[in-house]
From TrEMBL:
Domain Amine oxidase: 76-554
Protein name: Flavin-dependent L-tryptophan oxidase RebO
PANTHER family per the UniProt record, alphabetical: FLAVIN MONOAMINE OXIDASE (PTHR10742), LYSINE-SPECIFIC HISTONE DEMETHYLASE 2 (PTHR10742:SF410)
Keywords: Oxidoreductase
Gene encoding the protein: rebO
Amino acid sequence: MICDNLLNPKAPKPNQPPNPTDYERSIMSWYALYRACHTEDYDYINKAMSPPEPITNIAGPGQFKGRRIGIIGGGLAGLSAAFELRKLGFDIEIFEANKERAGGRVYTFYFDREKQYYGEFGPMRIPVNHETMWHYINLFGLETIPWIQSDPNAFIYLHQVRVRNDPQGKNVMKYIYPTYRLTGWEAETPWQELGYYGIEAPVLQAPPSVRSEIIRVLPRYSRQLLFWDSLNVRQMFQWRKLSQDAINLLSNLFPIGGEFLYNNYVDFVQEYYPVNFWYMYQIKGGMVNLPLAFINSFTSKDTSRYYPGIPAARLGNVSYRPGYTVKGIYGNADEKVSVAYTVSDSESLKIESFDSIVCAVPFSVLRTFDINPIFSSIKMQAIKEVNYGNAQKTLIYCNRRFWEEQGIIGGGSYTDLPVTTIWYSSHYQKANSVNDPGVILGTYNLNLDAVRLGNMTEEERITKIKRDVEEVHGLPAGALDSIVTDYKTQNWNSDPLFRGAFCYFTPEQKKLFSWPMTQPEYGKKVFFAGEHVSALHRWMQGALQSGMESANALAYASRAQKQVNTQK
């Protein structure tokens, strides 16, 4: 199945304005599905991406005044859970291990005090159809600007051949295809259509009700979904009869799959089935403005701005505690849950009890907690086995924007060199001169390449990155030595507070663990949230939605317990 609209659409392309309205986003989302030839999925995707039911439908504002909730992890999942639970009057303590910055894996790095020159070590893109994400963007009044995903002047550099990334893929076909041993039909097919054939087309053979399971967490899945779940990415490409050289080619052009060829196909196609990459945005001034907006809302006197219709007296109190590192979770005989933690650099262990807790840290971190009594067998198995992928990003600060001298404004370049991808900042496009400073993501690579580049010495790494970027751009060796004046690397695997960049299932892990990971423990006293618990791994949407869902689950459990206590 090849989609005619993919490269040759007949419908006009809608505009992509800053700060889009909900209606404008819906038009862009529908058009993206039109280009991908499955507009019939619009309602299914919209429903799966939307926030869950309002928590105030479950219980009235202020109904749980005096009850204490502990939230482990101050990333987006923990913050959204706290924001929602506060509406019902819960008093909430957020334990956040990082004392240096807020946001968890949302990590905006600024090179200057004025915060003009920055980049993202964590998530950097917001698809227009991530409804839960936009729910909070709109609530907090955050400004957004378009993210440029593709620029025709950016480069594709494979097998030592450099071409511009033209929208029709003709340059790659003419100059790069001959360096690969492609079959006849592969050599005659643009790389974008080859990718579509291997990635998206397989799931489009099933009805929308089945393929929408890709972006849902369910207690049971269809036979078709379970088949997809049993395959890794390479196996799907091979099942589609793609040659090994075609797989090699595509692995460089679709790195979220190509760097994880032996990971779960469903976890890969969930990036493409909802057409995430067609229309995207970024938060003006940095993604960290979202977690900061949550934190600021907890202490704001203007509660009506964030909680319209709820009197301030009915809201709970939220305390955000940076530098508080949780070490253990314990069930108590009095139906409370205790949390053991240390503060900043102290080794002194403190213990605090709560009515319920939300565990919003990655399973890669939870794995080393002291848990007594242990959780259910399947939950402990998931904590041990669920796979996390690595990502390494290095931002480079340049005293002039050399890439704009080559006509590149936003988008990314792709290569088979270790840097893998290079991303150009969209928010500098209106600057007056290419001689002004700027920041680019000199490398964003994943999995094995992230481990290899990320574990070089600092001097070796930045030298290697500069040489690779020069080679991709056709610059003389050493050209960037006088241009790159500062840099910063984040290697997520080696960060002790995260121990991995994101959840990325291996085959059959969706079937085995996706539903059990969402289920509470200790008699519905311990709840779980995070991108790993969601159906949308690696996205802020998944973290926020799971935070809201965990808050709702806690509210239902608290309501049921209150009814039992009333009847005693």
